[in-house]
Amino acid sequence: MKMYKAARHVLERALVCRLGLVCDGRPYVVPVCFCVHEDALYFHSRTHGKKMDCIDAQPQVCFEVDIDHELRKGRDPCTWSMKFKSIVGEGRATRCDDASEKENALKALVGKYGGREPHGFAPEALDSVAVVRIDIDDIRLRIN
Question: How many CB atoms lie within 10 A of CB 136?
Fold first, then answer.
């Protein structure tokens, strides 16, 4: 799905993505560090554990990010509201098995959080981590 500019802007600025999964028939939400790369979301994880078990069993996911929070106070608390920008979306999560895609996603993640992309990763480092791509099926931007 081609992402529109305003949605990309919010996703690029958000620091945490809340990932909604189905695990053993029950909802499960987990925060992840993530990045946008080529119109998909990427995050890294341990190669095994509850989150990866859930994704392997049920790859349909939802996600939420939000930025620019500001409480708007009125005369009394009943008139207060919250200013924010948020994204809610749905997609399909897939483990990245391709070494090149995995490395490019990790470079984008490190670039987002560290300020610059590394030159590369040792093969054993790539093998020790899971990288997940979320292909976005639906995305909604809300500005309040």
Answer: 20
Between the CA of residue 134 and those of 1, 60, 75, 93, what are the distances in Å?
Answer: 11, 9, 43, 4
pLDDT, tens digit only, all 144 positions of the chain: 566 889 999 999 999 999 999 999 999 999 999 999 989 999 999 999 999 999 999 999 999 999 999 899 988 888 899 899 999 999 999 999 999 999 999 999 999 999 877 777 888 888 899 999 999 999 999 998
The 10 Å Cβ neighbour count of residue 106 is 23
**The model's pTM:** 0.90
Q: What is the CATH number of the domain that holds 81?
A: 2.30.110.10
* Angstrom distance (rounded) from CA 104 to CA 99: 9
What are 98's strand-pairing partners? none
Q: Which domain holds residue 22?
A: 5-143
| Structure tokens given for 85 | 């920008």
Total of domains in the chain: 1
